[in-house]
Design brief:
2 helices; 28% helix
């Protein structure tokens, strides 16, 4: 399955170097449940290297398990922010403003 390194996720960027990222127990459990559901749907069999597969993939349309375009992820985040306004904290967002910034495609 294509990933970031081979250009299958246009507009996405790879970070250089290492960063320490703290993940809450709740987020870790949520991610684990998401990965479990992907495996139940067959995503682990559809790729040679499941560990490097993108998190946001097509589940309901072809090509199945293909990575989403970055704009699709941002659209989902925008929709969730609107639908859950006031219920989701924005503190700690990388931009410091709580507003996601979309990568600029060249």
């Amino acid at each position: 399955m294509p990933g970031l390194r081979d250009g299958a996720c246009p507009g996405a960027r790879l970070s250089r170097g290492y960063r320490r990222l703290f993940v809450s127990d709740d987020l870790d459990r949520l991610y684990g449940e998401h990965v479990w559901q992907l495996c139940e749907a067959g995503a682990d069999l559809a790729t040679d290297d499941f560990d490097s597969t993108c998190v946001f993939v097509n589940l309901d349309r072809e090509p199945r398990f293909r990575p989403w375009q970055p704009d699709s992820v941002y659209d989902l985040v925008d929709k969730l922010r609107r639908d859950l306004a006031g219920q989701v904290p924005v503190a700690g967002h990388p931009t410091g403003s709580g507003t996601p910034t979309r990568p600029r495609c060249k």
